[in-house]
Amino acid sequence: MARVRERRPEEIIGEWGIRDVTPPSQAERAQLEHESETNPFAGRALPRRIRRFRAEADRYLASLGGPLPYMVRLRQIDDEIDAHAARLADAYEEHRGDPAGWQAVVERWDFGEVNDLIERHNRWYPVEARLAMDPRTRDYVEVGGRSYRREPLDAGWALERFPAVRPDYTAAP
Description:
There is one protein chain. The chain is mainly alpha-helical. The protein has a domain at 69-161. The chain has helices spanning 9-13, 23-38, 57-64, 69-94, 99-108, 112-128, 155-161; strands spanning 133-134, 139-140. The longest helix has 26 residues, at 69-94. The radius of gyration is 33 Å and the shape is elongated. It starts with 8 loop residues before the first helix and ends in a 12-residue tail after the last helix.
């Protein structure tokens, strides 16, 4: 009858101390020791991270009420612009080959409602979004690398997207 070798609990569940040093682990230890000599924070407590926001009660309560007014207004502006672009695209196809007629349609196009939303956005967004002031420019900081202001829509905006004279891509170079 073969005798079963008894194993120690450390071998079964892997509770052992420092194992034999292997070449990869030795290289890793040497790298860590070298880095600790050049690291200015070695042996010192790390500085506290500065938090860029504070959990304020009014912001917390505002978040419970759903989207803030400027968020709703921005969505309305985007939806209105998309609707204008779709209606302009339909009208553009109707006036294919008639640049003067297309120009007249664009000149008469009513952007009043969306421009009113854009004007309200430009006036109230910095306050509602609590934008910080830039002391160098004496203006509000940029949002996402650009100004928070939206340009009103006009005939130039429409003609930029739907030019009166269509480019001819079929002509040979």
